[in-house]
């Protein structure tokens, strides 16, 4: 029953994604004149408002189902399926994320599992990272075009596509590996001790680093940890948010648990707290750079809000490791779509 | 003018080099998602309270 529901749910989502991709292949912003490009983008988004909301619903449902934000799929798919420039997709996705995290914070407030000291210390690194990431994207936006195989392609498109291909491979591989290991462990084919040993040598060295100033985090039961480790984790995840429009929870969560040593429940609450700030700061800085399309934000918000609820209710019907395996496979579907779009742009566009 | 046209026009020609953001654009860019999110969060909590059910929490 569980696996049947999982397969049906995944098949419906995959069909919707692929049919949308086929329906919108070839659309996008093509004009080189800035006024014409803005008009094209406005028409594209207003005309496809319903489809964008539907797309938000699908990504929201996937996010709810897999227990993740879904930003890492949202941005590349907005570019691949609808032809929305990466900078606008990133800025608008951060707007959507700010709304979703505000909603989640209101709902999670009663649990109160947030280490506020850790959260506020990390915000310094997160905000710096978001700003640096947004500046890098802004620089890419203005760097111009490159000629490959006698076709002109925006350097921002090329760099962002490659970065997303690498990110999706990293995430997909990690999830598939972890879920297979958990399934083996559940089947009793893997030593429990070996399966539960996530801390590598680098992780242990970071945790034990004594570079002053040292801080204590009583709410997480941590006596002493270097402030630079906390700031570094904030900066890395903030950079990913600012440049790629992702929440960064896939790095922040394991970093909070394995490097800093937070209990998992505190890590979940503190991660949510950080996402709220990184998305909030991200949307402000991207708005100042003209990367936030308000109509797109509204369409995505409407879709993701409903989708997340639907997806989350389906999660109860499928087992944890199998859900993560599906998520990993989906990341590789994303890789294929980005590669195909890039190939078409360069060799067939 | 409908809401979509209003939101579109608020942005202006964001892709032009001489573009600068209006205060209204910045305020709406932040207030729209945050107010929407808070409204949805409160509404869902209310639904949980009134109907005595626990809704799925999903990603964020």
Describe, in plain words, how this protein is organized in 3D:
The complex is a heterodimer of chains A (349) and B (60). Chain A contains 14 helices and four strands. In chain A, strand 3 and strand 4 form a beta hairpin. Chain A has one domain. Helix content of chain A is 77%, strand content 5%. About 3% of the residues of chain A have low confidence. Chain A is globular, with a radius of gyration of 20 Å. Chain A is mainly alpha-helical and 349 residues long. Chain B has a domain of 25 residues. Chain B has 60 residues and is mainly α. Helices cover 63% and strands 0% of the residues of chain B. Classes of the chains: A mainly alpha (349), B mainly alpha (60). Chains A and B meet through helix 2, helix 3, helix 5, helix 12 and helix 13 of A and helix 1 and helix 2 of B.
Measured by DSSP, the beta-strand proportion of chain A falls in under 5%
The low-pLDDT segments of chain B are none
SS element count, helices of chain B: 2
Q: What would you call the quaternary organization? A: heterodimer
Computed CA radius of gyration of chain B, to the nearest angstrom? 17 Å
Question: How many runs of DSSP E, i.e. beta strands of chain A?
Answer: 4
Structural class of chain B: mainly alpha
Q: Give the largest interface pair and sizes.
A: A-B, 57 and 37 residues
Q: Main β-sheet of chain A, in a few words?
A: 2 strands, antiparallel
Give the fraction of residues assigned to helices of chain B.
55-70%
Distance between the termini of chain B: 34 Å
Distance between the termini of chain A: 45 Å
Mean pLDDT of chain A: 79
Apparent shape of chain B? rod-shaped
Q: Catalogue the unreliable spans of chain A.
A: 22-27, 192-197
Q: Work out the strand percent of chain B.
A: under 5%
**Rg from Cα of chain A:** 20 Å
Shape of chain A: globular
